[in-house]
Amino acid sequence: MSGRLVHVGSAVVDYVYRIDALPASGTEKTATSYARVAGGGFNMMVAASRTGMKVAFGGQLGTGADGDFLRDAFEAEGIETLTPPSPLMDSGNCVAMISGDAERTFVSWPGAESVLTLDMMAPVQVVPGDWVFSSGYTLSYPGSRDALTDWIEALPADAPVVFDPTPVIADIPRTILGRVLARTTWLSCNTNEAAEIAGAGDAQTVAIRLLAEHCPKAKGVVIRAGAHGCLVRLADGGTRAIPGFEVSAVDTNGAGDAHIGAFVSALSRGLSPCEAARYANAAAALSVTRHGGSSAPTDTDIQEFLSHRDQETTAHGREDATAT
Q: Domain 4-10+44-63+114-315: which topology?
């Protein structure tokens, strides 16, 4: 394994309520379960860490109950914290409501993770071999976007930058978004986020526009399509749709984070982009069969899952050949 994942996104505490369906306006529901868990960027970091990559967090954690909770979670996963806690405020939080169809609805409250300055980020030193990750959440905050963008632009030219615009992409000023995309090495986004950046169209057309018009230094773009898998478009012109895996989902919260973390981890180990995407599809598939946002599987889990699926495919191929 070469280098670390240096994560300069945001981590928050998730307050997770499971309900059969979202309540109608003005009504109330009783949740079937409740959990307080580390969330936000923590989910992506866990996915990379559990698949063998060393991870360091360069964002801000707060001073207070939620900040302490996150620090304990980081320590439990072996994730190093590079910056001192904010003396001004506690970490932010997010209420996540998981409905019976495994979909989720969020209401968030920003905290210490929403305020960054270059002085705060001074301890975050990127060395050769490191990978840098940032997300749209940190770029959506007025108190952090300028410093983070300046910091990303000042990175060594050979430091790979992975960027996930996230569902809050519409809250990121286009000038800020454009500057970060111009420095992005790998863009990972879902179909809606891709269209928000590059306009409507089929996935391949949008991916081509992303590389040609928005990410001039990128090696490739990954457009995630949930259970359908993802599309990988490389700067050299290669395009491949990587199928997903059929599973029984119980909680889709954190699936995108699991995908990105596993993808970066696999790339850092030398897997090809398409191999890394299939590995990431498996990680995301396993994550949605488990409750909680930080439900990313280990490398052993993923390898066993892929081996089992390969065996099933081989067996089906033999049955088809026999039937023919």
A: UDP-N-acetylmuramoyl-L-alanine:D-glutamate ligase (3.40.1190)
Q: Edge to edge, what strands does the sheet with 104-109 contain?
A: 33-40, 11-18, 93-98, 104-109
Extract the tokens encoding 264. 């970066």
**Single-letter residue type at 192:** N
- Residue 233 in contact with residue 221, Cβ under 8 Å? yes
Q: What token pair was written down for 239? A: 């395009």
Q: Would you kindly state where each structural domain of the chain is located, as residue ranges?
A: 4-10+44-63+114-315
Q: What is the pLDDT of residues 144-198, one digit of tens each?
A: 999 999 999 999 999 999 999 999 999 999 999 999 999 999 999 999 999 999 9
Q: Is 203 within 8 Å of 225 (Cβ atoms)?
A: yes
For residues 73 and 79, give the distance between their C-alpha atoms in angstroms, rounded to a whole number.
9
> What does the angle CA 313 – CA 316 – CA 317 come to, to the nearest 5 degrees?
85
pTM of the model: 0.91
Instruction: Return the half-sphere exposure (C-beta side, CA atoms, 13 A cut-off) of residue 113.
Output: 33
The answer for 64, left when phi > 0, alpha when psi is -120 to 50, beta otherwise, is: left
Instruction: Give the sign of the dihedral formed by CA 148, CA 149, CA 152, CA 153.
Output: negative
